[in-house]
Amino acid sequence: SSAASDVYKRQELVKRDGHLPPFIDKCISILTQTEALTMEGIFRVSAPKPTLDALQVTLNSGEEINYSELSPYDITGLLKLFLRELPSPLCTFELYTEFLSVINETAIDQQTEKIKKILSKLPKPNYEFLKKLISLCIKIESH
């Protein structure tokens, strides 16, 4: 098992207190307040594997990450790695067919209402994380 999977097994999307791991909020906050909003391919460009490996070791050890030493690509790489390593998808297996069923709605307002209803069924931390990610993507798109 990799160092990354250790931290994600211990600290899944939700800690026992129902909150996101603190590094997620920190990463999103940094990305919304830096040049990341205007960088080409901020989620497409990969962070160097050795950097992500080192960040995983730091997280596993319980130490604080020195964010000032990281590029925005490193930070998005950490978020993407966290999402990949979740034991279940952010939008959950249980809601998968409901999300797919939105395609069958022809009117955009019906699609919107259906999506809102489905999103309300997500576990609260999943919903909060998704909301933060979408908000970040909207900010990136608007720049």
Task: Summarize the structure in words.
This protein has 143 residues and is mostly helical. The chain has 7 helices and no strands. Helix 3 crosses helix 4. The N terminus is likely disordered.
Main sheet overview: none
Q: Which residue ranges are poorly predicted, with pLDDT under 50 across at least 5 consecutive positions?
A: 1-14
**Quick check: average pLDDT?**
86
Which structural class is indicated by helix and strand composition? mainly alpha
Strand content: under 5%
Number of helices: 7
Beta strands, count: 0
Helix content: 55-70%
* Shape, per Cα inertia axes: globular
Q: Which H/E pattern describes the elements?
A: HHHHHHH
Rg, Å, rounded? 16 Å
Alpha-carbon distance between the termini? 39 Å
What's the short version?
This protein starts with a helix and ends with a helix. The protein has helices at residues 3-10, 22-32, 49-61, 72-85, 96-101, 108-119, 124-142.
Q: What's the structural blueprint in terms of helices and strands?
A:
Blueprint: H1 3-10, H2 22-32, H3 49-61, H4 72-85, H5 96-101, H6 108-119, H7 124-142
Helix pairs in contact: 1-3, 2-4, 2-7, 3-4
